[in-house]
Amino acid sequence: IQLEREHIHSVYEKIASYFSDTCYKARPKVQQFISQQKPGSLIADIGCGNGKYLHISSQVYKLGCNYCSPLMESAQNEGREVMVYHSLCLPYQSECFDAVLSIAAKDMDLMDGPLDVLSHMQGCLPCV
């Protein structure tokens, strides 16, 4: 966790005010994925950054979480439903989401337990 704090969280804290200037455009495949979900679906965006995917499709409900408070403040100011949580301590009940996004998965390379994070995310999805 210390390595994560030093190399990921501290960087995001520093760049949070500039993040939306450079990371504002939705990736087409992610936008397509969200748009293809059934109306009324509940989607979690784990590590949602500035919440740029949380406005896509008014037909589904989206909740975002991220560990960076300034990014969450920015997302809240844009009217997004977000919470400050670490991906290893998700507050969600098991199998409560229809889909889970984690676009910034590349940041998990430095973390202590990327497989633990993926396991936590998988637990939010229904068993198929």
UniProtKB/TrEMBL annotation:
Q: Which GO terms describe its cellular component?
A: cytoplasm; nucleus
Q: Which InterPro entries match?
A: AlkB_tRNA_MeTrf/Diox (IPR051422), SAM-dependent_MTases_sf (IPR029063)
Q: Where is the chain membrane-spanning?
A: none
For the biological process aspect of GO, one term held by this record is:
tRNA wobble uridine modification
Domain of life assignment = Eukaryota
Q: Does the keyword Transferase apply?
A: yes
List the Gene Ontology MF annotations in alphabetical order.
Answer: tRNA (5-carboxymethyluridine(34)-5-O)-methyltransferase activity; tRNA binding
Q: Lipoprotein as a keyword?
A: no
- What is the name listed in the Swiss-Prot or TrEMBL entry for this protein? Uncharacterized protein
Which organism does this sequence originate in?
A: Otus sunia
